[in-house]
Amino acid sequence: MKQLKFLAIAAGVMALVSCGQQPAPAQEPVEVDKAAVVIENIMTRVSVRQFTEEPVAKADLETILKAGLQAPSAMNAQDWQVRIVTNQEMLNTLSGFMLSTEMGKGMAERLNGKNAFANAPAVAFIAAETGEKATAYNREDTALLSENILLAAHALGLGATYQAAPARMINDSKEAKDFLKTTLGFPENADLINIIIIGHPAESPAVKDRDQSKGRIIE
Ligand SMILES: Cc1cc2nc3c(=O)[nH]c(=O)nc-3n(C[C@H](O)[C@H](O)[C@H](O)COP(=O)(O)O)c2cc1C
After folding, report:
1. Is 165's C-beta closer than 6 angstroms to any atom of ligand 1?
2. Model confidence over 190-218: pLDDT tens digits?
């Protein structure tokens, strides 16, 4: 197997040199198996739906957003719109609209007093742009963006879940759809596809097995 490896540099050496001090004795370079780290992150990701109240650091959200926006898209159209919201007042207002829909009414009793986002400290709203600059693959593009967000959150020790049902509730509510435009600044030509709830995990679900017979290599 081709393995990508790189050397981790002892950052302290440079810092000391720039301060005019004697550099510390050279440390042994640490070899990191970059491929193994990336694959392990993919294989251990799991949907997390319960969170502690601890807010997610802004720097982590910035990393997560950047990772999402780095996803491939058909013809590099980047025909998506993303908002990551941490404002709990906004999320509660939106949740109120969602739980008033037919689908939401059925869901309300299963929430145990939490809002429609499981009281997640951060929620990503992901929309596919339509119109002239969008391609016919705008939904696929948002899916790839979403997976990047899930993997970045997991790599940062956070929990996250891709959710389509809350997007349906939002799309079923005029007030909720208006809220996305007026308060979250979604443009008119953006169709909400899914949300991703993000936070510090308050549960540790096991990784679910996958049916390996669904894929095969043909030589
Ligand atoms: C298109 C799609 C829609 C989903 N919608 C929801 C949802 O509405 N609510 C939810 O809790 N999870 C939702 N999920 C998460 C899946 O239930 C979850 O990914 C699946 O059970 C596999 O579990 P894992 O993510 O832990 O591997 C959705 C996932 C996908 C890909």
Report:
1. yes
2. 999 999 999 999 999 999 999 999 999 99
What whole-number percentage of the chain has pLDDT above 90?
Answer: 82
Q: How many domains does the chain have?
A: 1
Cβ(46) to ligand 1 under 6 A? yes
- Cβ–ligand 1 distance for 161 under 6 Å, the answer yes
In a domain, 7, yes or no: no
Residue 13 lies in a domain: no
Supply the CATH number for residue 121's domain. 3.40.109.10
What string of H, E and C letters represents the secondary structure of the chain?
CCCCEEEECCHHHHHHHHCCCCCCCCCCCEEEEHHHHHHHHHHHCCECCCECCCCCCHHHHHHHHHHHHCCCCHHHCCCEEEEEECCHHHHHHHHHHHHCCHHHHHHHHHHCCCCCCCCCCEEEEEEEECCCCCCCCHHHHHHHHHHHHHHHHHHCCCEEEEECHHHHHHHCCHHHHHHHHHCCCCCCCEEEEEEEEEECECCCCCCCCCCHHHCCCCC
Atom of ligand 1 nearest to the CA of 47: 26
163 lines ligand 1 (CB under 6 A): yes
Choosing from 162, 170, 171, 208 the residue with most ligand 1 atoms within 8 A of its CB, the one to mutate for a pocket test is 162
Give the structural domain span for 76: 46-199
Regarding the beta carbon of 50 and ligand 1, being less than 6 Å apart is answered: no
- Please state the atom number of ligand 1 nearest to the C-alpha of residue 208: 27
pLDDT over 90 (residue 137)? yes
